[in-house]
Design brief:
Length: 91
Amino acid sequence: MDPAAVLKKVARYFQLSEKQLTSKRTGRRDERGMALELMYRHCAASQARLGALVGLDYTAVSRERKRLRDRIESDKRLKKRLIEIEVSVLS
């Protein structure tokens, strides 16, 4: 799967533009984190490649993904949203 296609589907799910997900100070950290996590899981892309796509370096991608995984453990609603998006992206 192409990472750009995943980014587009996640943006569409949240009714955002791709630019809103990829800007440095997005204000949409959870949404961008979900996009990064799904791209990493399903696109066989390195964190460096994903970072280049969204304007972050690979360490920032790693931190965003970790922050999302940590939040998912305590926020059931966030976890449910990630699952819904994952199903949408894969279909």
